[in-house]
Write a structure and sequence with these properties.
Number of strands: 10
CATH architecture: 3-Layer(aba) Sandwich
Order of helices and strands: EEEHEEHEHHHEHEHEE
CATH topology: Rossmann fold
Radius of gyration: 18 Å
CATH superfamily: P-loop containing nucleotide triphosphate hydrolases
Strand order of the largest sheet: 6-7-8-3-9-10
Number of domains: 1
Largest sheet: 6 strands, mixed
């Protein structure tokens, strides 16, 4: 599904280069659950944003489902992102003045999904996440865990083949974090959704099947989760 070849990201600082990512080469197959770990400043979030087509590498090749993302313009990258990728953020990124239902509906409106199909998809996800009774509530009326569940549901509403999660439990207490990670694990194992998450948590990383350890913008080592 994902093929990275010598991906580099740097910023020109006068005559020198400030490196964020250097010589990243990796392959992620469809159906995998991969965690990216590393200390602050190791390039984890930048790598995730490149994978999510929200940022561009300075150099290297990014192949997604056999397509050369590194050759695409911003419009084509946005189309690919909207069609295949769901993003889950640490800070939830829900729209405060929209209800749970409306937050879930918004991505479908952008994609011009017909009304009857919108209602069907939203009903399915509300039922799946036990949120039917909360569909008319606003984000500030929900707990952190509930807000993140809505964030996960919103990422899933477009039926993505890849979920990218940036510290998805960073703002949650342990029981809520465990619930979110179990949702991801179930999506991966039962629905076959490919998941790539950035996390500081060794416990969370081990919900997946492989861990990429980043250090100073490089993949220092790879670990298979047993």
């Amino acid at each position: 599904m994902v093929e990275l070849k010598d991906i580099e990201r740097y910023y020109q600082n006068g005559a020198s280069k400030a490196w964020v990512l250097r010589n990243i080469t990796a392959h992620i197959a469809e159906g995998e659950f991969v965690s990216i770990m590393g200390p602050s400043g190791s390039g984890k979030s930048t790598l995730l944003h490149i994978l999510g087509m929200l940022d561009e590498p300075t150099d290297g090749e990014y192949w997604f489902l056999g397509e050369a993302v590194h050759k695409f313009n911003e419009r084509r990258r946005t189309e690919l992102y909207q069609q295949y990728i769901g993003f889950v953020f640490q800070a939830y990124h829900l729209i405060d003045d929209l209800t749970v239902y409306e937050n879930l509906e918004t991505p479908l409106l952008y994609k011009k999904v017909p009304s009857s199909e919108r209602k069907s998809r939203i009903a399915d996800l509300l039922d799946r996440f036990n949120m039917v009774a909360k569909k008319d509530l606003f984000p500030n009326q929900l707990s952190g865990g509930q807000q993140q569940l809505v964030g996960v549901a919103r990422a899933l509403i477009g039926n993505p083949r890849l979920i990218l999660a940036d510290e998805p439990t960073g703002n949650l207490q342990s029981p809520q974090a465990k619930e979110i990670m179990e949702v991801f694990q179930k999506l991966n194992k039962e629905d076959g959704v490919t998941i790539i998450q950035v996390t500081h948590s060794d416990v969370n990383a081990r919900y997946g099947n492989r861990i990429l350890h980043l250090m100073d913008g490089n993949v220092e080592r790879e670990e298979i989760v047993k």
